[in-house]
C-alpha cells in the first residue's frame, strides 16, 4: 500500500469515526437483513451506443451532443459509449461475476418507438431488450427496468417535452407498450429516474439536455406533468397489468442531504430539502398529497410580488392530487452527497429573478474536506446518507426504500480505486445504521456497473465498478478493486471493513 493510500484510509476512517456519536456503528463485520437485495445499474444513453442503428431515432442527448459544440467536457457523445448494444452478454457476465441479485438498466424510448408513438414498434429494439432480459433471467438475475432515464425523443421535446400536458398521454402509451412487451418477465419497474435532474437541470437551467434555461418556470411546469406522467404509468400498470404480471412499480427520486451552517439556518435547510426532495416526494408519499404547503406558499407569494397573474408553480386540481397520491410501491432513492445551507443574504441577492434558487432563497455549498482524493468528483459524507434515510423514515411513515443509486465519481482511471472502496464502505455502513434504527431499506444499487458517458462530463469522470477503455473499439471492461470488494459484500451478505481482495482473478462463482 502506498503512502497516499494509507493516508486515504486514515482519512476516511476519521470521517466515519468523527460522527460515531450519531452514526456509523464500526464493528468490523456487519450482516445485512435476510432478503436484502444487491444490484448495480446503468442507463440506456450512457452505455448502449448504437445511436442510429437498426431503426433507432434521435433523442435529446443525440441531438444536443451532435449539434452543440463544447457541450460535453471532452467533446464526446454517447454514439458508441460502452457499446452495450452489441456487448450486452459481457455486461450480464459482469453482473454474474459480482453475484448480483438484479441489474437495473433503462429502455431507450426511441429504440423501441422510433416515431415516439406506438404506431410503429421497432422490432430490432424489442429484440435487443428481449435478449438482455432473457440473458439475465437465464442466470437467475432479476431485470429492474427504468422506463425513462433522461433520453426523451427529440420530436417530443420539440413539442414542449415534459411541459406539454399531452406528455402524460405520450408517456403512458410508451409505458403500456413496455409492460405489454416485457412485463411477463420484468417484475421491477421504475417509472422516472430523478425528476429533480430532469426538470431543474434540464428545464430551469442548462446543465442537462434539453438545456431550456427557463428559470422559475420551466422546472415547475416540467415537474407537474412529469409527476402526472409517472402516475399515469402507475395506474396503467395497476389497472391493466398488475393482476397478471404481479410486479412492482415505483419512482426513483434523487436527494442530497442538507445541513444547516449554523442554528439560525435550520429553517433555510428545511426549505432547501423541500425544494430538492419534498417537491416530488410529498405529492406521492405524504398523507395529504399535493406540493408541500410551504413551497406552494413561497412560490405563490414571490410570483405575486414579481407581477405574475398566478403562481409560477402550477396547481394540481383536487382530482390530480388524488390521482398522484400513493402511486409508488416503493420509495426509490438515489443519493450521492451532502451540502451545507445558509440563508446568506448577500449571496441570495445575486440570484436571477425569477428562479428556483431565488424562490428557495438559500445558499448551498459543500466542503473540500469531504474529497477523498485530489481526483474526487463526488464528495463523501456518509453521515448525510444516514440522516437522509432517517428523514425519509420520519417524514413519510417509514416507506420501503429501494436505494437505486449510490456511488463515487472520480477523475482517476486506475483499477486500485481505494477512494471508491472507502466511499462504498462509509455509505453502506451508514445505511446499515439506518436499518438498525428500523428504516425499511430493502435493496442497494451501486452506481454503476461500468464507466460510461457521464452526461456533461463525458468520459472524464468515472463511476464504474469496472473500468472501460473507451479508446479501444472492443470497449474492454476490467474490474476495479471496488468490484472485488462489492462482490464480497454481496457474497457474504455482510460488510467487512478489513477485507482485502486478491485482485488477480475475477470469476463467476458457482450458481451464477
Ligand atoms: C444519474 C446517473 C449519473 C449519476 C452520477 C445520477 O444522477 O441518475 O445517470 O450517471 O447520477 O452523476
UniProtKB/TrEMBL annotation:
UniProt-listed PROSITE patterns: GLYCOSYL_HYDROL_F1_2
UniProt keyword list: Glycosidase, Hydrolase, Signal
Transmembrane segments annotated in the record for this chain: none
SUPFAM superfamilies: (Trans)glycosidases
Signal peptide positions on this chain: 1-20
PANTHER family, alphabetized: GLYCOSYL HYDROLASE (PTHR10353), LP05116P (PTHR10353:SF36)
Family of the protein in this entry: Belongs to the glycosyl hydrolase 1 family.
Domain of life: Eukaryota
Keyword Hydrolase applies: yes
One Pfam family in the UniProt entry: Glyco_hydro_1
Protein name: Myrosinase 1-like
Gene3D superfamilies according to UniProt: Glycosidases
InterPro entries associated with the record: GH, GH_1_N_CS, Glyco_hydro_1
Amino acid at each position: 500500500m502506498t503512502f497516499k493510500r494509507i493516508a486515504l484510509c486514515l482519512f476516511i476512517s476519521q470521517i466515519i469515526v468523527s460522527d460515531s456519536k450519531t452514526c456509523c456503528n464500526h464493528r468490523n463485520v456487519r450482516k445485512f437483513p435476510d432478503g436484502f437485495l444487491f444490484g448495480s445499474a446503468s442507463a440506456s444513453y450512457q452505455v448502449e451506443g448504437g445511436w442510429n442503428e437498426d431503426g433507432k431515432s434521435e433523442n435529446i442527448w443525440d441531438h444536443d451532443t451532435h449539434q452543440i459544440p463544447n457541450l460535453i467536457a471532452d467533446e464526446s457523445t454517447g454514439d458508441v459509449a460502452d457499446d452495450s448494444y452489441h456487448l450486452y452478454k459481457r455486461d450480464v457476465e459482469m453482473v454474474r461475476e459480482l453475484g448480483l441479485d438484479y441489474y437495473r438498466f433503462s429502455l431507450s424510448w426511441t429504440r423501441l418507438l422510433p416515431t415516439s408513438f406506438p404506431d410503429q414498434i421497432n422490432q430490432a429494439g424489442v429484440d435487443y431488450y428481449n435478449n438482455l432480459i432473457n440473458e439475465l433471467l437465464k442466470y437467475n438475475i432479476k431485470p429492474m427496468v427504468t422506463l425513462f432515464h433522461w433520453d426523451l425523443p427529440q420530436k417530443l421535446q420539440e413539442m414542449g417535452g415534459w411541459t406539454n400536458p399531452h406528455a402524460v398521454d405520450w408517456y403512458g402509451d410508451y409505458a403500456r407498450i413496455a409492460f405489454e412487451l416485457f412485463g411477463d418477465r420484468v417484475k421491477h419497474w421504475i417509472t422516472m429516474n430523478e425528476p429533480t435532474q430532469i426538470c431543474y437541470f434540464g428545464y430551469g437551467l442548462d446543465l442537462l439536455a434539453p438545456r431550456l434555461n427557463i428559470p422559475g418556470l420551466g422546472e415547475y411546469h416540467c415537474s407537474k406533468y412529469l409527476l402526472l406522467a409517472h402516475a399515469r404509468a402507475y395506474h396503467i400498470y395497476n389497472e391493466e397489468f398488475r393482476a397478471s404480471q404481479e410486479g412492482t412499480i415505483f419512482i426513483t427520486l434523487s436527494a442530497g442531504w442538507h445541513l444547516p451552517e449554523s442554528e439560525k439556518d435550520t429553517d433555510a435547510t428545511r426549505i432547501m430539502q423541500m425544494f430538492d426532495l419534498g417537491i416530488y416526494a410529498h405529492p406521492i408519499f405524504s398523507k395529504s398529497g399535493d406540493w408541500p404547503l410551504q413551497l406552494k406558499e413561497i412560490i405563490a407569494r414571490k410570483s405575486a410580488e414579481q407581477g405574475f397573474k398566478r403562481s409560477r408553480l402550477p396547481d394540481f386540481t383536487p382530482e390530480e392530487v388524488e390521482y398522484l397520491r400513493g402511486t409508488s410501491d416503493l420509495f426509490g432513492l438515489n443519493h450521492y452527497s451532502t451540502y451545507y445551507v445558509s440563508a446568506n443574504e448577500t449571496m441570495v441577492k445575486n440570484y436571477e429573478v425569477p428562479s428556483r434558487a431565488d424562490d428557495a432563497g438559500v445558499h448551498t455549498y459543500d466542503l473540500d474536506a469531504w474529497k477523498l482524493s485530489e481526483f474526487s468528483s463526488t464528495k463523501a459524507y456518509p453521515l448525510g446518507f444516514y440522516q437522509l434515510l432517517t428523514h425519509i423514515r420520519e417524514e413519510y411513515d417509514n416507506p420501503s426504500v429501494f436505494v437505486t443509486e449510490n456511488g463515487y465519481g472520480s477523475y482517476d482511471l486506475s483499477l486500485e480505486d481505494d477512494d471508491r472502496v472507502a466511499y462504498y464502505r462509509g455509505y453502506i455502513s451508514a445505511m446499515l445504521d439506518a436499518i438498525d434504527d428500523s428504516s425499511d431499506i430493502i435493496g442497494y444499487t451501486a452506481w454503476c456497473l461500468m464507466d460510461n458517458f457521464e452526461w456533461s462530463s463525458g468520459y472524464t469522470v468515472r463511476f464504474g465498478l469496472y473500468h472501460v477503455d473507451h479508446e479501444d473499439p472492443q470497449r474492454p471492461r476490467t474490474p476495479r478493486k471496488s468490484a472485488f470488494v462489492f462482490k464480497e459484500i454481496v457474497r457474504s451478505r455482510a460488510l467487512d471493513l478489513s477485507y482485502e481482495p486478491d485482485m488477480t482473478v475475477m470469476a463467476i462463482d458457482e450458481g451464477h
